[in-house]
Amino acid sequence: MINVSELAFRYRGHGPDRSSTFGMRVEDFTVPPGASTALVGPSGSGKTTLLGLIAGTLRAASGSVIVNDQAISNFSDSELGRYRIRSVGQVFQAFELLGYLTVTENVMLPWYISGSGRKADIRKRAVDLLRGVGLESKLNVMPGELSQGEQQRVAVCRAMLNNPPVLLADEPTGNLDQENKQNVVDLLVEQATRNNSTLLMVTHDESLLGKFDSVLDMRHIAQPLNRQE
Amino acid sequence: MILIRTLLISVALLSAACGGDDRQASDQGGSATEPKKALVVTSNYPLYFFASRIAEGVDVAPEIIFPDIDGDPTFWTPGAEQIQLLQSADIVILNGAGAEPWLDLITIDQRRLLDTSANITDRLIPLEDTVAHQHGPEGEHSHQGTAFTTWLDPHLAIVQSQVVTEALIKLAPAGEQQLRENMAGLEQELIALDTKFAEVFAKLDGRPVLFSHPVYQYMQHRYGINGESLHWEPDQEPTTSAWIDLQQMLASHPATIMIWEDEPLTATATRLSDTGITSVSLRTVANRPGQGDYLSEMHENVRRIAETFATHGAHQL
Amino acid sequence: MSGALFLGWRYLAHHRFKSGILIASITLMLFLPAATRLLVEDSATALTARADVTPLILGARGSELELVLNTLYFHAESPAEIDNKAFIEAQSTGLANFIPIHSRFRSQAAPIVGTSLDYFNFRGLNITEGRQMGLLGECVIGANVAARLGLGAGDSIISSPETVFDIAGVYPLRMTIAGVLDSAGTADDDAVFVDVRTSWIIQGLGHGHTDLAEPEAGAAVLSRRDNVVTANASLTQYAEITPENISAFHFHGSDETFPLTSIIAVPPDQKNATLLRGRYHDSELLQLVLPGKVLDDLLETVFAVQNYVILGLAILSLATVAVITLVFLLSQQLRKGEFHTLSRIGASRGYISVLITSEIGFVFLISVLLAAGLTYVTRYYAMQILQSFLTL
């Protein structure tokens, strides 16, 4: 479950006057556990920022973000890192696989970061995930040899490696063709459902909205923050 | 942290590689020699006999060896093992006077060579009628030089034996007295031999004799023998031209005795006898005799000569 | 953090070309000065060691360095020759043990050194296979010659003509290998040793042929006059000394005039050494040198050059370090996205630091190991490398 309350975020501008800041305020909302929610809104409305606040890669100026009863707003940097490894699976628009690791090793990347668990067990989990998405013949292939759809499927597997309770996807279909878009979204929803993970996915594609339990519109939950606030 | 640790390990490795030299250059000259009984090798049998006689009964005397040689030691080419024996000897006793042409053919420490004729070069007899060859203007070269059978003159043999004695004393100084005593005894024996030869050859009284080979120069010189040399081998029949040369020689040198290195073929002796020449052998004893030793062989030589002269009768000589 | 090391290693392995160039550059940067210093110091030690145990060298007036290098290392450049008479006269002084050296000819790359048995005792050389040379025409070979040419006792080796067109001069002599010397770690390992008279035969001062005094000499005889036989050029001379033909070998002329390239003098004490040096001090034709001093002078120059070389390498290294630093910085820039991804997935700053450092660390570690390995190999072969230069 994701719970956002009185959240405000400020980030430094890049104009000539570096002292100016702007931000956004997010109204309280809750994403129930196991639910698949699409996050929509115009460009610049703060979708990625909101995901960052939930993932803990960005810090709120005020308010709270509670994920599965963890108030991550109060976490230190190292706690946030551990939180993301264990509790958050992330899928990015640009796939962001490491080109010098094999497909299996890319899926195991969270383990290479945390070192938690037996390698053999993690490898088996990774192989099972890849088999589940039809990539059993590509286990030792380098990402550069995969199609975009295949790469994104690997990224999904990576996100699911530790069975995270929260799955955050930031326009994962942005670089895919129509068929792959459908496939990837279906995959994400399916994984979330299977693992009872809370899925929050940013998308611009209205044709995909029907696959989600609910839709959160940034226009309804976020406002720009005034300079004075 | 890891970087620092890595660098520290690397520096340590490089230092070890560039560190002290654990490989020493082994250029130490010389090697320690363990004490061992001295070894003396002689180049012919007479020298072996003299050295053995001098060292007889002297416990500290070195081991004396005369290698097994087939035929005349002067024409010996040492084999590999024999060369190793020579190289390992403390002293190699040489006759000198050109008796060891094989010395030019082998590798040996020159300092270990003892030339027993080195002090009597003025008494060495040069060879005549040698054949020299040359290649273009380089100059003449002769394969022969001086007569080398010095041991056939007992007085020269005494001089050589004295040189041997001094060498043995250097190798075994503790035995000096006994070595000198033995030398004195040998000297007496050689003098006695010399007296006998002198008596026998005195009977010739200047009358001509023939020698089968030019190997008796020192005897000839010592006892005033009027002799001419042929080049006849005892075990080979002389050729027709050889008989012709003999006849030509007899014309100016009417010898009735021919002294051979060894018993000639019966046919040769018979034909010589028909010509009026009696054959008698006077062995040079350059190599080990089948029986007896140098002195016994030389005395046997004396006996044969004396017997031949007696058989011939004075008027036939 | 082992995961960070793994990622770092995989990154390097994936970018082989870049990694290879970096490793090669750093390896060279570390190895070259070390090897220079190693070669110079090791060679100085070895040169000095061999020179110090060689008390005195007598040779023709001229270049002392050439004389010493040829005597100690059988350098291809032979000094002017001296007569064997000098050796005979030196021996007669009784002031030292004199060892003749004739180092002029070669058997392919191996120098043929004519000398006496004393040389082996002097250098502490032992026979490990076969026996010491006995007959003329036999030789003993150094351990490296045996290994390189696959030769052993009983095989043969042929002397090389001095020049390709040496038709009328020195021609090849086949020599039987009597024995192989034990490895000494010196120039002796690369030499072929013969009796000095064998080297004179190679030079043509001695030879063997059919006996011209015999009628069978036939067409080889130009004339017979009195007791002198003159041979013509058709006379076939033996190209090999065998036990069967050895007695036919002889020299023409007095051996006093036969050549040597040098004489090693080993006096028993300092007094004799001084007397010897005094004896040859004013000689117009001969010089008696102290090998150690001659090489010390050479090494002074070598060390000076070494310092310049290392300085040059140090400057080059600075430039290399600057370029390598730039490469690493650019690499980090290029990998910013990757680090961002890792951070987003959950990697800490420390983890990222280790990842960055591992790239540098692995490159340096491999370079250092390679440099150390190359340095070790260079040290192992240092003497052979040096000796191959010295015998050139």
Essential attributes:
heterotrimer, A: 229 residues, alpha/beta, Rossmann fold, 6-stranded antiparallel β-sheet, 5-stranded parallel β-sheet, 8 helices, 11 strands, globular, C: 392 residues, alpha+beta, 2 domains, 10-stranded mixed β-sheet, two-stranded antiparallel ribbon, 11 helices, 16 strands, elongated
3D shape of chain A: globular
Order the strands across the largest sheet of chain B as they lie in space. Answer: 2-1-3-4
Uncertain segments of chain B: 12-32, 133-143
Stretches with pLDDT under 50, minimum 5 residues of chain A: none
**Total separate domains of chain A:** 1
- Quickly name the level 1 CATH class of the largest domain in chain B: Alpha Beta
CATH topology of the largest domain in chain B: Rossmann fold
Q: Helix/strand/pairing class of chain B, anyone?
A: alpha/beta
Span between termini of chain B: 119 Å
Number of strands of chain B: 10
- The CATH class designation of chain A is Alpha Beta
How much of the sequence lies in strands of chain B comes to 5-15%
Question: Gyration radius of chain B, to the nearest Å?
Answer: 29 Å
Helix content of chain B: 40-55%
Q: Which two chains touch over the largest interface?
A: B-C, 53 and 65 residues
Q: Strand-and-helix sequence of chain B, N→C?
A: HEHEHEEEEHHEHEHEHEH
At a glance:
The complex is a heterotrimer of chains A (229), B (317) and C (392). With 229 residues, chain A is α/β, with parallel strands linked by helices. Chain A contains 8 helices and 11 strands.
How would you sum up this structure, described in words?
The complex is a heterotrimer of chains A (229), B (317) and C (392). Chain A is α/β, with parallel strands linked by helices. Chain A has eight helices and eleven strands. Chain A has one domain (2-225): 3-Layer(aba) Sandwich (Rossmann fold). In chain A, strands 1, 2, 3, 5, 6 and 11 form a six-stranded antiparallel β-sheet that branches. Chain A has a five-stranded parallel β-sheet with strand order 7-8-9-4-10, with helices on both faces. Helix content of chain B is 41%, strand content 11%. A four-stranded parallel β-sheet of chain B has the order 2-1-3-4, sandwiched between helices. Chain B has a four-stranded parallel β-sheet with strand order 8-7-9-10, sandwiched between helices. Mean pLDDT of chain B is 85; it is low at 12-32 and 133-143. Chain C is an alpha+beta fold and 392 residues long. Chain C is 51% helix and 19% strand. Chain C contains eleven helices and 16 strands. Chain C has helices at 2-14, 16-52, 64-73, 84-93, 118-123, 143-149, 196-203, 270-280, 291-334, 336-345, 349-390; strands at 56-60, 82-83, 97-107, 110-115, 127-130, 138-141, 156-158, 174-181, 192-195, 206-208, 221-225, 228-231, 249-251, 259-260, 262-266, 286-289. Classes of the chains: A alpha/beta (229), B alpha/beta (317), C alpha+beta (392). Chains in contact: A-C, B-C. At the B-C interface, α1, α3 and β5 of B face α2, α5, β12, β13 and α11 of C. β5 of chain B pairs parallel with β12 of chain C.
